[in-house]
Structure formats: structure tokens, C-alpha cells
Amino acid sequence: MARRWTVTSLATAVAGAVVAVTAVSAGASAARAEVPGGAHDPAAPTGPLAAELAEALEQWPGGVQVSDNAITWGGGEVVAVWPDPGDAAAPLGLGAGVREDVVAQLGLADLTGPALADGPSDLAVRGSSTSCPVGYYCFYTSSSYNGARYQFSSTCSGYASSYGFDNATSSWSNRSSSRKVAAYDSRGGTRLWTMNPGASSSYVGSGYDNRMSYWTCT
User: Fold this and answer.
1) Could you tell me the residue range of the domain that residue 80 belongs to?
2) pLDDT (tens digit per residue) in 5-39
3) Which runs of E-coded beta strand occur in the chain?
4) 40 inside domain
5) What is the overall mean pLDDT for the chain?
6) Long-range contacts from 129-132, C-beta under 8 angstroms, 24+ separation
7) Do residues 3 and 63 both lie within one domain?
8) CA-wise closest residue to 149 among 133, 161, 167
9) Does 169 share its domain with 86?
């Protein structure tokens, strides 16, 4: 016997269907939202600085976490190392919790290997120009080589905004053997300082502090 549909029963059925579809849609949306940047995303940063590193990767995409303290861009050409919570200066090398497999693939073993362990003590390196690895030139977001350290190997020019330290450089160290770097407040703008090979500056001066936006080799 065919079921008779009254206005009331039809409305009730339609309402139930709408609720069911809404619930399924909401569940699917929640499942999709759970993955990017969440606990189940294998690419999401981990460690004590996970929130800071995740924010950096979101604002400046393309980077890869190589330790609890560091992210690299450009296949290892650019490395940013953040201080541990409560510390003023970034650690030597890549810091703690090094992702050995990723580091090996990117050819960054020289930043984590025995050469670093055999060098000066961590306390001696922190807050000194030698925290910039040999062969690199580095920018620091605080004076006295403190704050986050942005280090570059073969990159010869760039915009600080591409890596999150626009108008945020207070000290620098150039430990490359031949690369001479000039810092500017903008491309084609005022030259703020020149970084000769082997030179360093624990403070760029009040007139140039937190002004660098662009640099290039000279």
C-alpha cells in the first residue's frame, strides 16, 4: 500500500534530510580542517617552538623544518635559527632536535656534525660573531648577535621581507671568504652598511637599526 504524504509528514521528512546533509557536510569540513597545520599533518612543525615556526612557514611558504630551532628555504641556501624559549641568542648550528634525514638530503651536515662539537663551547658561541657558521654571512634581529639568526651561503641578494626579518636587523657577521655584502633600506635606496669578508658588527647603530630591507653583493 502506497504511503500517503501529508503536508506535516512531508515537511518533517524534508527537515530531517536537511539536518542529515548538514551534519555530513560539517563532518567533512571538520575532517579537512584537521589536517593542514594540525596534529595529524606530518609537515607541521614540532618541538618547543612549533607555534613560531608554523607562523613563519605560513607567512613565508616554501620552508622546511630542519630542527626544533631552524627552518631552511631554497634547498638549504637560507637558514633561520630561533632562540630557545627564554634564551636571548639562537643556538650554535641548527640547535636541538635535528631532523637528520632532512639535513642529509639538503647537504647541511656541516651545521650539525663533529666539527661543531669540537669547536668552542655553546656558551662561548652564543652572543658572538662566530655563531655565524664559516662560509656564511648572517643577520641578527637583536644587537650583540642575539635574537633570531638568518644565515646565507650562496645567496647574493635578497629582500628581508621574503624571510620575515624586514626592518629587523640589529647586528651582522660575515664569515664568507670573499663575498662582500651591502645592506640597504630598500632596493636602490640608502646604503646602510657594508659587510666585508671576515668582518662583523655587534650593533649597526641607532641611525641604521631595524632599517634593512634589501641587500646585495658588491
Assistant:
1) 50-217
2) 443 443 444 344 333 333 333 333 333 233 333 33
3) 64-65, 70-73, 78-81, 137-140, 149-152, 157-159, 171-174, 181-184, 191-195, 200-201, 214-217
4) no
5) 82
6) 129/173, 129/175, 129/200, 129/202, 130/173, 130/175, 131/89, 131/90, 131/92, 131/173, 132/173, 132/174, 132/175, 132/200
7) no
8) 133
9) yes
Reference 157, options 171, 137, 173; nearest CA is 137
Q: Which of 57, 52, 46 is nearest to 97 (CA)?
A: 46
Is pLDDT at 49 greater than 50 in this prediction? yes
In a domain, 45, yes or no: no
Q: Rounded distance, CA 32 to CA 82, Å?
A: 31
Are 184 and 192 in contact by the 8 Å Cβ rule? The answer is: yes
Q: Output the nine-digit C-alpha cell for 123.
A: 656558551
DSSP lists the bridge partners of residue 73 as 78
Which grid cell is 122?
A: 655553546
Three-state DSSP string of 104-139: HHHCCHHHCCHHHHCCCCHHHHCCCHHHCCCCCEEE
Q: For the chain, what is the radius of gyration of the CA atoms? A: 25
Is the pLDDT reported for residue 63 higher than 60?
A: yes
Q: In this structure, is residue 42 part of a structural domain?
A: no
Q: What is the mean pLDDT of residues 83-100?
A: 95
Task: Tell whether 57 and 124 lie within a shared domain.
Answer: yes
Do 59 and 158 sit in the same domain of this protein?
yes
If one counts the domains in the chain, the total is: 2
Residues 142 and 175 in one domain: yes
Closest by CA to 176, choosing from 191, 194, 196, is 196
Q: Are residues 28 and 96 in the same domain?
A: no
